[in-house]
Amino acid sequence: xxxxxxxxxxxxxxxxxxxxxxxxxxxxxxxxxxxxxxxxxxxxxxxxxxxxxxxxxxxxxxxxxxxxxxxxxxxxxxxxxxxxxxxxxxxxxxxxxxxxxxxxxxxxxxxxxxxxxxxxxxxxxxxxxxxxxxxxxxxxxxxxxxxxxxxxxxxxxxxxxxxxxxxxxxxxxxxxxxxxxxxxxxxxxxxxxxxxxxxxxxxxxxxxxxxxxxxxxxxxxxxxxxxxxxxxxxxxxxxxxxxxxxxxxxxxxxxxxxxxxxxxxxxxxxxxxxxxxxxxxxxxxxxxxxxxxxxxxxxxxxxxxxxxxxxxxxxxxxxxxxxxxxxxxxxxxxxxxxxxxxxxxxxxxxxxxxxxxxxxxxxxxxxxxxxxxxxxxxxxxxxxxxxxxxxxxxxxxxxxxxxxxxxxxxxxxxxxxxxxxxxxxxxxxxxxxxxxxxxxxxxxxxxxxxxxxxxxxxxxxxxxxxxxxxxxxxxxxxxxxx
Length: 482
Ligand code: ADP
Description:
By secondary structure, the protein is α/β, with parallel strands linked by helices. Helices cover 38% and strands 22% of the residues. It contains 14 helices and 22 strands. The chain has helices at 47-66, 69-85, 87-98, 102-122, 161-173, 186-199, 213-222, 235-244, 270-282, 302-314, 334-349, 399-407, 422-431, 464-469; strands spanning 13-15, 18-20, 27-31, 38-43, 129-131, 139-146, 149-153, 176-180, 206-208, 226-232, 251-255, 260-264, 292-298, 353-357, 370-375, 390-396, 411-412, 414-418, 436-439, 454-455, 458-459, 472-479. α1 packs across α7, α2 packs antiparallel against α5 (161-173) and α4 (102-122) packs parallel to α5. The longest helix has 21 residues, at 102-122. The termini are far apart. The relative contact order is 0.14. Adenosine-5'-diphosphate binds at residues 153-155, 180, 182-183, 213-214, 217, 233-234, 237, 240. GO terms for molecular function: oxidoreductase activity. Belongs to the aldehyde dehydrogenase family. It is an enzyme of class 1 (oxidoreductase). The active site is at 255.
């Protein structure tokens, strides 16, 4: 696949302002999940390189934080422009290593860039406050200061956006970042680092290290220099990083697994609900943590909804991400294929009906979209995130009952409800124990809103002004003796 700018395909890590190639010939292959072909190799680095990245981050962060917000904003703005100017190349790299259709990859690059743009603007608004004092000769000042050095660990499902969603606000706030991208998708991360360098992010402020996850994560969490861990990934690894961070009492931002309920009431606009399900379920082949996992359809519209959904699903085209008209690319790896198939087999064994779905072509990572009906709460899908293109339809007949069932999981990231009734809409918005609720909307992600979960789905928010707040400490100064 040809790039306009071949310099964006990096086979080296960006550590402390230098491009570091494999040490002792230790490298990790990056393969295309659609074809299995080798795309590139990246260095397998570990403890030592992570320590030098942290050291450089500490040295640079103070100087970066001392700049005016406007100066930091100018650099971020330039990074944003470079990302947008290089959308085609970045999307090509992203599709090569992740598999999603090229159009979706381009959409992700623009979405990723939007965080850098937003936080370039928001950098200037890290406002403090002056509180009316409790003493006549004193004043109470509250100011905001950057947290300092941040360790970031990101997943493969959004190889660009999960990085800018952390780095945009971190750099805006005056922090430095040492990033470990997912082993499946390091090339997008390294290309973003190249563009950050070109934009004028100072050497050392941003490092990207590929290699041994356990070693890199270990150093990031044990280092007293690192003040915050920002992680997006599985709940299990999130809990592990939380435990590892306890010794140094780090701040934590965790964006972990979801198991989103998608509720369709009897008074819903069914066509709009179908459009909502299509995007909330099948985007990125179902591999997002806000994908609809449990679709609850009111008994009185269940059959009509199922028939309409199947028609839409039949029109999806499963193909290599570079093929014209592809709507679903491959799943990321063989383990993902096995998990999705297990969820389907478990549901069918416990009484579900496969209303639509071609068999999974063995030996590939492609998974044709499936529609399962007559789901019940004993099936794996009811409690475990599928992360694949399976629309699982449950029946319900009462709002209180469906809210109870929707909330009956340990995760609490995204949820959705479709109804034309204003009072029901408010009831769902207020009763669903989730960090995010889409009412009559299936696509809720935007840089201007706070993304994040409750319960075991995580801590902190990314996006919006809350996203900047998460990289700032509050300092109170009592100015006495006045
Ligand atoms: P997934 O199952 O979706 O790959 P993971 O939570 O395993 O999700 O991966 C998300 C990110 O966490 C990746 O960058 C991965 O390399 C990293 N990771 C996995 N295990 C650890 C660990 N023990 N310490 C630090 N990072 C880890």
